[in-house]
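SEVERITY: medium
COMPONENT: batch folding queue
REPORTER: lab tech (J.R.)

DESCRIPTION
The queue accepted two submissions in a row. Attaching both inputs and their returned structure tokens so the on-call engineer can compare them side by side.

ATTACHMENT 1
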Amino acid sequence: RLREIPATAYYPLLEDESKPVESQSLPSSASNHDMTSSAALPLVIREKDIEYQFHRIILYERLLTAYPFKRPYIWREARIDIPPLVRAYVWAALLEVEGDIEGAYNSVDKETPTTTDRQIEVDIPRCHQYHELLSSPAAHTKFKRILKAWIISNPHYVYWQGLDSLCAPFLALSFNSEALAFACLSAFIPKYLHKFFLRDNSPVIQEYLAVFSHLIAFHDPELSNHLDGIGFIPDLYAIPWFLTMYAHVFPLHKIVHLWDTLLLGNSSFPLCIGVAILQQLRDRLLSFGFNECILLFSDMPEIDIERCVQDSIKIFCSTPKSATYRQHARPVKPKAAEDRPNLSYYSIDYHDLPQTDLSMEPIPLEELKGEKCPRISAEDLIELGELAGAAYSRSPTKKRQNSKPMILIVDVRLYEDYRRGTLQGSINIPFQTAFSPEGELNPCPAVQALNARRNQVIVVVGNRGRNAANFANELVRLCYARVCVLHKGIDVFRTTGLITVPPADI
């Protein structure tokens, strides 16, 4: 298979100055003139294609040799796929693992007995023991050393069951390098599971589950209403998902493909994976009652991981960044000594973006749990509605000149308040008179406009009271999708100059 490959294939061109980075394609070969056609095949087929893997491995080896300077290129190639033979090193690059990892690992005392040793020894023999490597005595020893090293290195955290499942993919990939597995685990947890391993992690997990519930309602209100109606809340099934980033519920051969994409997203991407899983099981869930749902998730049913990955990407890209805001997410990363280019708008956490008066702020947990819809920041509203003009857009998506805004703003204040000033393009449906005694929206021109644009993101705007959230909750009950509430109300726009007097005929 490799006989006709030219010698130049061993030294692929990493940069083509005549083309922008985004448009540079995969290398060609004698038997396959454009590797892009192979890249379109299912992942399991690509991983068994010898020639395709040859080109990918050669390319990655050159990029990894130049890490961290070529990290943006590694990230770009990882969006296509990651060859199994170099996956451990690519994951480390995506997690920004650098420095003397061997020295750091060797400096940790992994031999002195600790209070968690007994629990670790109980958990390890139950962790992915179908896997030939991880079921070996050598793996059990490595498992224990890595877990002890992490616990000792993070004295503010405690050992929770599930940490062994998090460690398993890294150990399986870096079996001959405990230091690399430890370094990856140490970089992974702060990004995706910040504060999850505190002794009292209840506020952190409860906030995470509340945001997850909002995301379900945002993308699939019918399913959200059904699950809420039968009392099947995320607390009953989703905690093992998020505490282990799905490593406890899927076999390793699925986890590596899932994490290949997970590592490209920000800390909110796991929430989108959860929604994608529910949507894949949607028909069954809608027909099940509480007991059937409990039985269904007691042993995770078969999930098409490739479809799950693609669905989660769509969900992630169609969700306003601030809609997944969490006050317990990872704080702002310290700036590196050298300025590195951003890999992607979508891989940046909301906390890492510049914060202003228009940004999100912490929301009390009880208030968060009392709402069915996510909140979005004034910044996102300006961005999605292009209220400040396309020139001020932060989004990487190039919009057509004649494209319509992706949002519909529904102002639920009294008509008198609405007439004094509102946001451009908004419609007015006063909350006090919006619904009939039967709970349906009262017909009016504004409701007709709302129904005509149900495929857009519906942003409910009000004062800082509860009317906007209550109106949004009612829209979810009526199965309106993509409903969210403006955080801090319309008053947040008072100093922006974006509030205008609506035309008289609206």
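ATTACHMENT 2
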Amino acid sequence: MSSSQGFGPGSPKSFRYPRGGDFDLESGISRKGRKPKNPHLEASVLMRIRNFYEAHPVAVALILLSFGLSVLILLSVYETRFRTMTRSGEVGEYPFPNLQNLVMVAGHSIYTSASCGKTDREDSWFLEPYQKHHGQAATFLEHIREGVDIAARDERALLLFSGGETRKDAGPRSEAQSYWAIAESKGWFGNDESVRSRALTEEHARDSFENLLFSVCRFRELTGRYPQNITVVSYDFKEERFAQLHRTALGFPEGRFFFSGTPATPSAREAALKGEAAVRAQFLEDPYGCLGSLHVKRLKRDPFHRTIPYPDGCPELRSLFSYCGPVPFSGHLPWTE
């Protein structure tokens, strides 16, 4: 073929560049051209939005506010569920998933001695003026022993010593840890193997109502459930306060609540009964201890400003924890199902 021959229409090497659109020289594929954006449409939409805003500014503000609140609520719910799952995990991951009953020993003092061999001496404990009676230390030991004995008779019971760091001059030591350490030093009164592994502490309570409420929440943290039965160990003259006032405030069934009381020292009993009557009267007016003198007492019993972790570990009781009123809480409770 002559080199001067051109590439005409009949030539096998003839080439026609497609009109319109894009053409890929390497692949030989013709592609449709992109449609240009319609600036008039976008301007029209923006203009309509602007006109609506100018005509109804309040409505737009309410719509944006509602949207923002919805987002915050969703984030709050997600955070609560995430924190609960992170702290507690699944039911099988709880330390004591098989325990069903709660035995709570309410703390009344803090052990300050460096030696555990002086537990029955009053100078080994931090005592308030009204507690300074001969034999007072022995009453604390009796509470500890009673709690251990009750737990030993019930293999499904979780034993909790309850009480926070309530006394500044006693240092950052809790009532609960004091009781646990003494039980440990006493070899759990012969029940080491059966009780020690399921005896723990609740270290934030500042009064008797919080002893009960916080221990119920702590039980939920450790077992993944709420207690089937509750037994409280304290002084016998406090039975009405726990079994009637506090139990009613929690809405816990009477038939599943038990109280084991030990006596005060003979020299302190008369003053103790008088003081107890005054405290009961306060809780009758303020069942949740969130107002007046009971609230002030709680503040004084938190000298180190400890942050209370509850109700993170018992999310079902969040409404109860936030409730403050002169009548019992009427919302939903797990043990009323």
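NOTES FROM REPORTER
Residues 1-12, 84-91 have pLDDT under 50 and may be disordered.
No errors were logged for either attachment.
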